[in-house]
Amino acid sequence: MTRGRSRHFAAAAVPLLLTLLTAVADNNVTVFRCCGRGEMLDPTDVHGPCAMLPSSLPPDFVPVIFDETSNQFLNPNEPPPAYWNLVHERPPCRPAAFLPASAPLDAPRFVSFLNGTLLAQHWPKSLTVDPGLYCLDRAGALLCLPEEPNKTKKCCGPSAVYSEANGGCEFSGRHDAADLPEDITSGFPRCEDDAYILSGRINESHWPVNGAWPAGGQLRTADGGTLQPREYCLERVLEDTQEPRTWTVFTCAPRHGVDHVTKSYREDIRFTLYPLGLLLSVFFLAVTLVASCMLPSTYHVLHWKCQVNHVGCLLVGDLCLAFVQLSGDNLRGPLCVFTGK
Ligand SMILES: *[C@@H]1O[C@H](CO)[C@@H](O)[C@H](O)[C@H]1NC(C)=O
Ligand SMILES: *[C@@H]1O[C@H](CO)[C@@H](O)[C@H](O)[C@H]1NC(C)=O
Ligand SMILES: *[C@@H]1O[C@H](CO)[C@@H](O)[C@H](O)[C@H]1NC(C)=O
Ligand SMILES: *[C@@H]1O[C@H](CO)[C@@H](O)[C@H](O)[C@H]1NC(C)=O
Questions:
Q1: Closest listed ligand to the CA of 30
Q2: Which residues surround ligand 3 with Cβ inside 6 Å?
Q3: Which of 144, 156, 245, 306 is the residue whose CA sits 20 to 30 A from 162?
């Protein structure tokens, strides 16, 4: 009886031991780096080939790694632990989502654990991504997002609308979900380079399949096609006052040959704050300029001349930058060259 039991125990212990052994061997963590040594992602085309790094920068970058056991980040000046295999490869999904790295002093937007799992802040909530489904770079990370539920999406989420003038979502203070299916989620379709078009309106160019909303969120288009819920989202457009009020359909911009492309920086409040900050500094630079002109004692002093030139140049520069920021993608032709875009 006892012998039988212990043999039973031994039989159970063998797979346990094997799991332990593989766990030790698995300590070899493989994490993808998007680019090779001396290269980085090209910020103008993160899905394209890597760009050469300026020789002033170190050829290797150190990813942000969090050690859960000691509850702290690893030293950013030291290479990752030896069992971390950094392999030059891109994640398998197309298109992968790009998450830009945060500014040096800001909290990181994504961080790897020692076991290779990545924790990323991705609107509307954070998510974890397994190693092999993302790659790291000093410019940011490319990741494969999990499958989306089969639901219709309101592009801007609750209590927000889309502003064509700003090229992004705006808080509206009022939650309007009239005519929308009961069970909706938020977000834009996943498009390469985040390029959307306003492709039509409900009941004008797009119709709910079977004339009823809850049909899995599919839409029929004017040319007879069908849009799956992950391929579009619906939103009110602030500037669209046409009656009767209806929902505008946002889809991914076709790859080529489309002029009206709306880039949405919805996930990034900086794109709103940045032009505001620039305009603010334009204002104060102008005040400085006026104030120094009104002080006659400073006239003809060399230092004063330098200062006026300096402030004047800053003012023109900031004004152009703010203009470029505010105009978004509406800027075309020679004006682009003039403002330095
Ligand atoms: C870790 O895995 C990689 C690829 O799977 C292999 O090339 C490397 O030799 C392994 N390293 C160790 C220490 O096992
Ligand atoms: C790695 O660690 C994180 C944080 O504890 C955990 O959420 C994740 O599930 C782990 N991943 C694996 C593959 O064990
Ligand atoms: C989503 O819903 C549509 C319509 O009901 C159905 O045909 C499709 O298979 C569903 N897709 C998934 C992934 O559940
Ligand atoms: C579309 O038309 C149907 C039938 O006329 C109507 O019930 C529905 O409210 C309309 N939907 C929108 C979003 O205007």
A1: 1
A2: 150, 216, 218
A3: 144
Q: Quick one: DSSP state of residue 96?
A: P
Atom index in ligand 3 nearest the CA of residue 229 equals 1
What three-state secondary structure class fits 45? coil
Of 27, 28, 32, 84, the residue with max ligand 1 atoms within 8 A of its CB, to mutate for a pocket test, comes to 28
- Say which amino acid occupies 244: P
Q: Give pTM, 2 decimals.
A: 0.54
Which fold does the domain 29-143 belong to in CATH?
Methuselah ectodomain, domain 2 (2.170.180)
- Is residue 132 scored above 60 in pLDDT? yes
Ligand nearest to the CA of 85: 1
**How confident is the model at residue 41, as a pLDDT?**
94
Residue pLDDT, tens place only, 152-167: 889 998 889 999 998 8
